[in-house]
Target: Helix-turn-helix domain-containing protein
Amino acid sequence: MPISPKQCELVATFANNVRRKRLELGLSQEELAELAGVHRTYIGMLERSEKNVTIYNIWRIACALQVEAADLLIEPSAF
Model:
């Protein structure tokens, strides 16, 4: 039985890490989307845990946020 992205703890961790890092860098969702080469609404959907993200887009967003991709997938207290 499939679960929605909102029901997956890893999706929530990713969403929180993206939002936290984006705000630390002083970027809007639109600015991050442009840097990562994705649509601006996609960033909002990811940050609200409404959309599942591909490995490729994790990498693109991590590059735009200047972090390792793995850092977006672990709880902040763990790194």
In short: The domain at 5-74 is CATH 1.10.260.40 (434 Repressor (Amino-terminal Domain)).
